Amino acid sequence: MNTLNDILLRHSNRILATRAKGIAASTTVSKSLVATFNVNIQDLGYTLDPVSFTWLQTLDKPTMVGVFTDTIESLKALKGANVRYKPMYPNFPEQVMEASDAELYGNAILHYFSFIVADAIGDASFVWMPKYRKDKREALGEKVKLTILRIGTSDDLRVLGAKIGASNTSISEADKADIRELAKYDLLGLASTTPNKENLATVAAALLTANLAPAVTATALSRLDTATDVLRLATALSGGDVSLAKDSKFRSFKRAERRLLLDTLEPMGSLAEDMRRHEMRWIRLGERLHPAEYEKQFPFVVRAFNKIRNGLHIATFNSKVEKLISEGKASEVVSVLRERPGDFARRLDHLLRLCGQNESSQRFIINAFFKVAAFVSTPVLLQVMTHFKSRNKQNMRVVFPKGNTAKVQAIVGTRAVISADACGRVVMACEHTLNERFSALPKLGKVYVDPLLADYLVPFSQRSASKGTRTLVRGSKIGFPAGKDTLRFFIHWKNQDEGEGTGKNTWGDDGNSRVDLDLSALIYDPEFNYKTHVAYFNLRSSEYKAFHSGDITSAPKGACEFIDIDIASVLAYGGRYVIMMVNSYTGQAFNTVPECYAGWMLRDKPQSGEVFEAKTVLDKIDVTSESAQVMPLIIDCLSRKVIWADAAVGKRAHYANNIASNYDIITLIGQAFTKIAKPDLYTLFSLHAEARGRLVTDPKKADKVFSVETGTPFELETIASEYMSNPEKKKAAKA
Hints:
single chain; six-stranded antiparallel β-sheet
């Protein structure tokens, strides 16, 4: 696979095409080949625009075939069509619908008995499967909106790389891999700013490793401001977690790399204090850097390392703040926090709670915050603004702890009330600051902001986001059209390679490589009361039109499961929400499974076409989290919206990992996602429109359009780099 073409396709729906020099193209042959290629990609849900169709004909045949092969391979991977889907019941869903209970039960018992024997003898091929003849299926008659592919260039890749690096929020593992790949080919552009320190470390490490653009690398390194920035860089060079939420091992550094890291640290202020925040990591890094060898060149660094290693007392900013809070010295706390506006913003709720009902104290704190708000980053201001808008209304929150593989948490409970007046003053302070900040950006003229963008959330943390067909923000609600009433969930997976078993399965064999994944669906009413479920132990519902394609317990050559749910029947019987779940019954974490995809389709005639039809796949993700239980999405059948979750859920079972043993946590997190209150794109773009132009209600009369129809919610690199920009670096005023 051409990795650069794959990157451009995933991010921009563009094909990277280059001409071979000195070879002429045959117009007649070329036109026929391009037409055939277009037919093939239409089967995957894509089509060429007229310009691309014509341009591709100018390529010589060998180049053209290479481009087409790479593109189809990438598109198949995006839709999950690069593997074979063979369900237990090949004539699903009708076959499961019409089978007797005795037939379904008998097949399940024989299948389960056979995998117990297969585990005992160590031969996965012994697992029994029922043998059915596949009936001829009616041709697929679905009308599908095709995604348009255009031609792209290496310049598009440079711009893309710069945008990813300039994101003001953390990026996904897939994006980090793309940055490293672009750097390898000297295509990693560097934007004028790199505000997110995790992304800066990733970019700098990629440039250093590629060693292709010394000037660009030097610029990236010059943006490292603190010891923690350098720690992130060393972690990135070692292939570790740059969020620093998870311990990472440091590799052995070359002498030149050691000198570079120490040289970058030397001029930094508050070095020992900053290093104290991650004390044990710095001690381990010091064992790799050997700073004592460079005592003459880097005396301040050596002194800081000595303080850390010898456990000498270092007064820190946070310890000072906590001490003042415990002593009830509100004015002094505010005075100290003004030095670090970001910390002030994050502690604002806590400080206002400590005031109780004392309005004058609350007013003093809010006024102090207002004076330094201009120095707070845009993402933090947006979060503070939204938090205080809904603070007293929300008693349930969804939280993604920091880290690449953090499991979602649902927090339930009321907090001490902060007066509506105080909350409103904080919101006004944030809005005023953002308006001033955005007004300094280039004017937009007449702006149309689609009201539907209120369903799409602003990208903040994408660290643990899965690689998939579309890049979505957790909690966003994506509408799907009326007229098609069958939801079809799917998973595909493959056993671990022999001897690579790492999870303790249900039979107590630590090394077993057999992987048993289970696809399940839970149905709830509008108040989130449980109605029913479809899973391996309940292949069909007696009330709802809901059917499971059969439970497969081993996948030496790959396996798949499907669930069909009729939306109309869910609503008819008082249901509303459907949660899709994927559980690793044998206990292995998904990141140890060689292949694991999950997704969903929307079908009009579920018995037409193949059970898996790539062009009908709306979303597919690679399930690679370190958990053994994932909630990809929630369907709101009443409003016909998908609530994107992509959530690794912490299992509570001590043996069988299934929905029955984890029902309480699944229900809690599912309900929390339906009530999520986070900054949305409609609010963000409206703030820009008010500060930089004039809002209009007709997109045809607008100079700038932000809408779902034009794909705005999926342009996360552009949103995070261009519409969440920070103020220029300044120091906050002293109290």
